[in-house]
Amino acid sequence: MIKYLQDIKCINVERLLLLKGKQAGLNDNEIFVLLLIYTFSYLHKEIITPSLLLNYSSLSNKEMDLILDHLLKKKWIFNHSGTICLNKFIERLLDDNQNSHQDISMIEIFEEQFGRPLTPMEMDIIKEWVNRGFAEDMILKALKEAVKSQVLTLRYIDGILNNWQKNGIKERYIEEKPKERKVAESHYQWWEDE
Question: Beta strands of the chain (E only): which ranges?
Answer without folding.
Answer: 77-80, 83-86
